[in-house]
UniProtKB/TrEMBL annotation:
Any Pfam family the entry gives: Succ_DH_flav_C
Membrane topology recorded in Swiss-Prot or TrEMBL: Peripheral membrane protein
UniProt protein name: succinate dehydrogenase
Family assignment from sequence similarity: Belongs to the FAD-dependent oxidoreductase 2 family. FRD/SDH subfamily.
Keyword Membrane: yes
The organism of origin for this protein: Myxococcus xanthus (strain DK1622)
Cofactor(s) annotated in UniProt: FAD
Keyword Electron transport attributed: yes
Molecular functions per Gene Ontology: electron transfer activity; flavin adenine dinucleotide binding; succinate dehydrogenase (quinone) activity
InterPro entries: FAD-dep_OxRdtase_2_FAD-bd, FAD/NAD-bd_sf, Fum_R/Succ_DH_flav-like_C_sf, Fum_Rdtase/Succ_DH_flav-like_C, SdhA/FrdA/AprA, Succ_DH/Fum_Rdt_flav_su, Succ_DH/fumarate_Rdtase_cat_sf
GO cellular component: plasma membrane
């Protein structure tokens, strides 16, 4: 497997400029001869499809949603980072780069992260030009707030609806191209396989979710922007529909899968309330700008929070991390909350919760200001819990939120398969072992608006436009495989629902490959996953056996892929015998309970190669080197 990252040579600051200068181009009048298949219309996919179409390429864009506006990106609340330094608080491209690299615990590629910081400012300019209604200061300058892992205020936001507003911007740009005939949008269409012709990605097999019809699409390149796989844990903050099928099918066709075990657990979510739940709700990290996290000092203290005096409260993040306090990065804040609850000092039903208290901020700034900043998020909390966050502290607990792992890509965002590019949360690129808040939107839009529209040109120019016949055996073979899988699922006559099987897999992963991992737990999980997969294959009941619109069939297909991915995640977590970022191996921790990295043996990206159903996947390593910064031990104290 070729893991050459194709990073341009020269000083860090000039690498991207150099790639742009030296990359081959496709002439404007030739671009219409190329057809590009963009799968996904969230922030990464919509921005890529719109930009590529604007350049003159013909684009097909696919989404299993009924409208691009319903992509999971719409859920993003808190904001998007950029190094504008409007606040004059010491920010710079360098500082954003360094914070992101350090936040990821030095497990990401230096050159990619630097480019991300460089491009960040252009994203804000582009979105402002589109009319995205970012919050503004009294004087008219865009407002910012702080997010975890940073000592500056660089997060741009539109109340608690930043993802929605950014997506509306990208969607407008996409709609313009749809009406110009440059993009053909395929809503309610799910990609179920990737088609390789002569060693290059040349097409996909997709299912029309309304009619059940399978269709093949051919193009000169395939771009996957299909989001993350956090839903593999069953309960997560992700939109219910988000899934791993597209990237998993590509992996099975030969694309390397990088760092599958790097999953982010977000510290501020509404705690699980019972077994009936199918989803968890995030309370934006931005709340930690004004909210203070605490628990009673006394174990089992049953008093209401307002009856507990200051001297009997433990503001444990402020105590343990005095410099960053409540804005410690997500992995660290989540682990601290878990530790406190494990000690029996958690609050709320089952003791799996800590307080996030806006009391001080309300007293200092007034409820009106707090409502202005976080109104919709607080309203959501009140509706879900029936508790009033302006009067009593909120209860929060960590929940699965984001996947840093994903398909491996080089500097140009190309996977290990020629012709296959991967953007946004679907790739592994920039966040290492832990993503900092407000950097996913930045990455998705950097990938879609600025990076892939430039980098894809070199490969297209090299191969020239070419048509592949949909009657090519590769398309027919792929379609046959997809058809057989669907028929197998439709023939299920067992007793247990998809949801029932899914819950079992999710809770196993949460226990053994969640916030803390151990050799024993992971080894036993590997055995259990196989047993759960066997149960699923033997004892599945689909209430609807029709080929047309069939929600349980869709979900069963996605779950079938999750078993295989879950196994890869546990394998990866087992193999990485160190703790770094969100990957916390209990055997590798400092005396103070912090992650203990092992740079001598694990300063690499782990990339897995599929070798067939009956053979274990092969592990390859892309070594990481840091030329511009020292990979120090992370500290937020
Ligand atoms: C509750 C929540 C709040 C967040 N808040 C923030 C924030 O404030 N700031 C920040 O930076 N990040 C935030 N994030 C993370 C961020 O929202 C996501 O990482 C980002 O939006 C992912 O964008 P994407 O374009 O890569 O994928 P998505 O938005 O997930 O889009 C995926 C697209 O792919 C399509 N798709 C997937 N599979 C297939 C298939 N097989 N066939 C056809 N189509 C397919 C879907 O229909 C969809 O259009 C948040 C995440 C959550 C869960």
């Amino acid at each position: 497997m070729d893991l050459g990252a194709r990073i341009p040579s020269g000083p860090l600051e000039q690498k991207w400029e150099r790639r742009l200068r030296e990359g081959r181009l496709v002439g404007p009048s030739n671009r219409r001869k190329y057809t590009l298949l963009v799968v996904g219309s969230g922030l990464a996919g919509a921005s890529a499809a719109a930009t590529l179409a604007e350049l003159g390429y013909r684009v097909h864009c696919f989404s299993f949603h009924d409208s691009p506006r319903r992509a999971h990106s719409i859920a993003a609340q808190g904001g998007i980072n950029a190094a504008k330094n409007y606040r004059n608080d010491g920010d710079s491209v360098w500082r954003l780069f360094y914070d992101t690299l350090k936040g990821g615990d030095f497990r990401s590629r230096e050159a990619n992260v630097y480019r991300l910081a460089q491009v960040s400012n252009r994203i804000i300019d582009q979105c402002v030009a589109q009319g995205v209604p970012f919050a503004r200061e009294y004087g008219g300058l865009l407002a910012t707030r702080s997010f975890g892992g940073a000592l500056v205020s660089r997060t741009f936001y539109a109340r608690g609806q930043t993802g929605q507003q950014l997506l509306l911007g990208a969607y407008q740009a996409l709609e313009r191209q749809i009406s110009a005939g440059q993009v053909r949008m395929h809503p309610r269409t799910e990609m179920l396989d990737l088609v390789m012709v002569d060693g290059r990605a040349r097409g996909i097999i997709a299912r029309d979710l309304r009619t059940g019809e399978l269709r093949a699409f051919a193009g000169d390149a395939v771009i996957l922007a299909t989001g993350g796989y956090g839903n593999i844990y069953h309960l997560s903050t992700n939109a219910r529909g988000s899934n791993a099928t597209a990237i998993w099918r590509a992996y099975r066709r030969g694309a390397g899968f990088a760092n599958p075990c790097f999953t982010q657990i977000h510290p501020t979510c509404i705690p699980v309330s019972g077994p009936h739940q199918s989803k968890l709700t995030l309370m934006s990290e931005s709340l930690r700008n004004d909210g203070r996290v605490w628990v009673p000092k006394l174990k089992g203290d049953q008093r209401t929070p307002r009856d507990i005096p200051e001297s009997e409260r433990d503001y444990f993040l402020e105590r343990r991390y005095p410099t960053y306090g409540n804005l410690a990065p997500r992995d660290i804040a989540s682990r601290s909350a878990k530790e406190i609850c494990d000690q029996g000092r958690g609050v709320g039903p089952g003791g799996r919760g800590v307080y996030l208290d806006l009391g001080d901020a309300i007293e200092r700034l007034g409820a009106g200001t707090i409502r202005e900043r976080y109104g919709n998020v607080l309203e959501m909390y009140e509706r879900i819990t029936g508790e009033h966050p302006y009067r009593a502290p909120m209860r929060i607990y960590p929940a699965v939120h984001y996947t840093m792992g994903g398909l491996w890509v080089d500097y140009d965002l190309r996977s290990t398969l020629p012709g296959l590019y991967v953007l946004g949360e679907a790739n592994f690129s920039d966040h290492g072992a832990n993503r900092l808040g407000a950097s996913a939107l930045m990455q998705g839009l950097a990938d879609g608006y600025f990076i892939v529209p430039n980098t894809i040109a070199a490969e297209l120019a090299r191969f020239g436009p070419g048509s592949v016949d949909l009657d090519h055996p590769a398309f027919r073979d792929a379609e046959r495989i997809v058809q057989a899988k669907l028929e197998r699922l439709l023939a299920s006559r067992g007793t247990r629902t998809v949801e029932d099987h899914f819950r079992a897999l999710g809770s196993l992963l949460w226990e053994q490959c969640g916030m803390a991992r151990s050799e024993r737990g992971l080894s036993s999980a590997l055995e259990s996953i196989q047993a759960l997969q066997g149960d699923f294959e033997r004892d599945l009941r689909l209430p609807d056996t029709g080929i047309e619109l069939n929600d349980s069939l869709e979900r069963a297909g996605r779950l079938a892929d999750y078993y295989e991915l879950a196994e890869l995640m546990c394998r990866d977590a087992l193999e990485r015998r160190e703790s770094c970022g969100a990957h916390f191996r209990e055997e590798f921790q400092t005396a103070e309970g912090e992650a203990r990295r092992d740079d001598e043996h694990f300063c690499h990206v782990s990339v897995w190669e599929y070798r067939g159903q009956d053979r274990p996947p092969a592990l390859h390593k892309e070594p990481l080197s840091f030329e511009s910064v020292a990979a120090e031990t992370r500290s937020y104290k």
